[in-house]
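note to self — DONT lose this again. spent like an hour looking for the file last time. sequence + predicted structure for the chain T wanted, 440 res
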Amino acid sequence: METLFSVPESPRPHELGGDRGQAKPRVQEVNRSQVELRPMDLEGLLPAEHRARAVWAFVEGLDLARFYAAIRAVEGHAGRPPIDPKILVGLWLYATLEGVGSARALARLCEAHDAYRWLAGGVSVNYHTLADFRVEHVEALDALLTQSVAVLMAAGAVKLERVAQDGMRVRASAGAASFRRQTTLEACLEAAEVQVRALREELEADAGATARRQRAAQERAARERQARVAKALAQLPEVAAKKKAGEREQARVSTTDPEARVMKMADGGFRPAFNAQLATDTESQVVVGVAVTNAGSDQGQMSGMVEQLEQRYGRGAEAMLVDGGFAKLAEIEQVTRAGSTVYAPVMEPRDPSRDPHAPRPGDSSEVAAWRQRMGTAEAKAIYKERAATAECANAQARNRGLHQLPVRGVSKVTAVVLWYALAHNLMRTAALLGLGTGLT
């Protein structure tokens, strides 16, 4: 081949002489300081069947008017626009499905993980905004739960023929050592008040800006502790009233989370917790009701759930399936009179010769009918649906990380449980209506 300049012919490998073992190998080495410019768009980060896309499609179908109504920044007026509620709802639903329960962890994922970056859509999100949003809109989240079920009811996927209810004890964000008796609480409150007054006086007398900010933060922390101790004292009479007359002076309340109560957990131990009640439609496996209480027992929780279903959907469940912890005779009467048939196991009598399903003296007509009903093969077959429904919903919430609560107080705990219920219903909606493979 002719060339413009003479090029010496390179020797072939087999023609090289000498000791090649002494020569340094020639390789391509890493160069991580090299700047690279790569064209990339967020839309191209995820495949079409990715779960995050299915979550966004679900969110776009929700009515978020309650969230938008709380926004103060409006067109034509000054003010920094907040993050679109659709982004925050989508992020928390996807995070819940993925088992991410920390606002700080979610904020980090919004910077490092493609799915979360895609959901954020280029909007910068910080952990404080995420943490506040998760618990600030309890009523709006509750309305979303009703809305998610109403859509399925309109499609005929949810019929409320049989609803299984079960309670789940979730560890509270409070230590066992934070529980104090009345005398200790009063001393703590007095010490907190003294500290608040001292910090306030010091803050007013200090001329340094940095020092003032530090004192202000200390005063705020002292005020918050004072408020928690005062709330604990206010909760004390309620706790004492549930104890025997001779034990009321031993009543204790947590100074960390005054609304938490020590409960018997699934492993037999006793720890501060909340009782999360989930009601699930047995046919569709959709969560139709959510309630959070600090009562350690499930007794008395069924009638409230029946009333909740009536308020949400205009009608209650035709049948309620509950375990023995709910089987309080007064509850059975109340729920039956409200129009729901109760399926709950009958307690075994102390006298083994007595038929547990035979009406007892003093039984009301509702209780007598319940005893007789639970003795039939049909009722026993129906009752088997309870474990396959209620315990399955609870187990899925556990699998998604609902083991210990990151927030305090019944209201905030209710918000967290609602996120789990919404995430559960998102998955069920995809399965029932066939909304795509991303959620399966």
